[in-house]
Specification:
Layout: H1 2-33, H2 40-70, E1 76-82, E2 112-116, H3 124-129, H4 132-137, E3 145-149, H5 168-182, E4 186-190, H6 238-246, E5 250-251, H7 253-268, E6 273-276, E7 288-294, H8 296-313
Parallel strand pairs: 1-2, 1-3, 3-4, 4-5
Antiparallel strand pairs: 6-7
Length: 325
Amino acid sequence: MLYLTKIFYLVANLLKIFEFFLQLKIKCMRMFLFRCRNDYLCRKIYRTVMGKMTKLLVLCAIVWCVLTAVAPRRVVTLFLIGDSTMANKDTTGGKLERGWGMMLQACFDEGIRVDNHAVNGRSSLSFINEGRWARVLEQIQPGDYVVIQFGHNDEKPKPDRHTEPGSTFDANLEKFVLETRERGGIPILMNSVVRRNFFMKAPENDDDEALRETTFKDGVKMVEGDSLIDTHGLYRMAPRQVAERLHVPFVDANRITHDLEQGMGREGSKRLHVWYRPGEEPSLPEGRQDNTHYNIYGATLVAHLLADALCEEVPALKSHRTKTP
């Protein structure tokens, strides 16, 4: 398909060049025949040549229109890099967990191809060190987009994940941005989505990934209030600051999801997450209290909200936005 596209464009460009030279020849012929315009033979030659030239130009125009119409346009890729809140998930056995990136393709038409490289448990540091960024980088074509969203795991104390906002975290974000631009791509920075934390104080959380091994009875035994409390601190500010410094489109996913969860309230926001009491969900008979990861409903809702925000920050995406459900 790629070679066919190149052939179409090559032929089309050759036709345009041919048309230019035809026009030039016509002008020259008009100048040459001007002196003998009253001569019958010259006028006859002129009309014959002009008639053939006109037919040829019409044919060139038709061919050009056909080739332009049938030549396939390159599909733009929207690469996603990030952590488990964005990542594709195992859906076997009726598993309900979803990353919002899984649902993003439905937010755009066939002109945008979403390629989700986010992985559970990765920070900006581990994503680079495991060679995952290098694999994305080699695929980026001019005009492609790269959505960059880290923070959840950069906060963790494990040395293979941990980065510092204002220092190593910022440096990794800058690396993603600058290397995307070197490939002709368009970087877009996002900060982390919120955790559903209505506790007066954020509970200790060394590893969000461990939540998948818990049941409802393992949930945090703390009293919840009515206000959502931030858990990301400076990690939610760093992407904005890097975006401002490097003039990169920025989507405040933290604010968007904060407003969503706060608006749904302490009880209503549970519907966004893998939060089920024992017996409520067949795939989780013992229940689970996961305030970090989304279920199908939550991931779908967040994906549409973030798609809208992406289109506001990058107007070129608007024409590809599908209608919200």
